[in-house]
Amino acid sequence: MGLFNKIKNMFKPEASPTGKEKVISDSSAKEQKEDTVIYEKGLTKTRENFVSKLINLTNKYHKITEEYFDELEEILIMADIGVNTVMDFMERLRKRVRDEKIEKPEDIKEIIVDELFIIYVNDELIVNKINYVKDGLTVVLFVGVNGVGKTTTIAKLADKMKNEGKKVRLIAGDTFRAGAVKQLEEWANRIGVSFTGREEGSDPASVVYDGLQDALKNGDDVVLIDTAGRLQNKVNLMKELEKINKVIGKVVEGGATETLLIIDATTGQNGISQAKAFKEITDVTGIVLTKLDGTAKGGIVLAIKESVGIPVKFIGLGERKEDLQVFDIEKYIYGLFKDMM
Ligand code: GDP
Ligand code: GDP
Ligand code: MG
Question: Per the confidence metrics, is the pTM higher than 0.90?
């Protein structure tokens, strides 16, 4: 059975667990279904834009011709999938159409879904979860430019972690932006997790140091560290992150467990440039792509993986806390192609 049918069947409402299916996550079937709905809703703009164009294309051509391929290429590029990804994709698609002697556009859609999946997975083992430290403090550092959703993402993740039974602390390492410390503190209070912050303008590394000490004293499981992302001053930002990392390494063996880069999906190719810049500055272990609900160009998930080589670990599909989701390529593809399946 091809991927197309697998995904289609996976999310059929009437599909009942037989106990034989591969376990894809530790959450219950009910949660899986709720998550799928969040994906569907959050990807509405992209789906309406991208898939409706694909459907129109399929209806317009009765045979697969060069013009058909050209138009398809254009649609994929407009969805922000990334030029190189699209080129590779088109090459593979043409080859399969040739080899499998496909003539009708109608019969090509399964191959499109299949090949998009292959681009992303690319034979790699993709780890979407936070790699928690066993029996020790897990340190997650959040980086990214202003306004991308760092602080809200920290709050959403903290809430998830707390619900999983973890002792969580937020550390206000963004001492630069006016109101940032307060904003994080309010979140900590609202969610009911611990907080370490100093006044605005404090040395971020020293706040981090204090926060880590607090965490050790309090026996916390996880700290989530907010930072200021002044990419316009790259040298300073690099020094600041180096200093923060040095302090983390001093307190916790091995340094930060994860460094998550937050990218705003609505910024399109600019977001990709940010990812490249941050990758040069610090060791990014994963990307959180926020505001996917606010763009019709949700193909950026695929472009980021291809152009930066860092996995997207979480995506933001709205402003509610449930809207932060572990990135799941199968749900994503379903969210995009639902109307075509
Ligand atoms: P920061 O400057 O990087 O810390 O950004 P903030 O966390 O303050 O967020 C900036 C704005 O983006 C806020 O209004 C958030 O509610 C909004 N936001 C964050 N994530 C999402 C998302 O996934 N979808 C939508 N629609 N809005 C989001
Ligand atoms: P710096 O060169 O003295 O700024 O030191 P680091 O880059 O190692 O650390 C940055 C900040 O973290 C310092 O300014 C301190 O506020 C804090 N810090 C680092 N190590 C220690 C330590 O061993 N004790 C205390 N009290 N604070 C520390
Ligand atoms: Mg912030």
Answer: no
